[in-house]
Amino acid sequence: GQVRDKQELQEISQGQIPEGKAPSPQPEA
């Protein structure tokens, strides 16, 4: 996953991002 928008950055910090859209605890296959 990659960070694209400021909104995503905020959501990432809150841990509310769909898998594949942002860095997740699990490896991206």
TrEMBL record:
Region annotation (Disordered) maps to: 1-29
What is the protein name given in its UniProt record?
A: Uncharacterized protein
Organism, scientific name: marine sediment metagenome
Lineage summary: unclassified sequences, metagenomes, ecological metagenomes
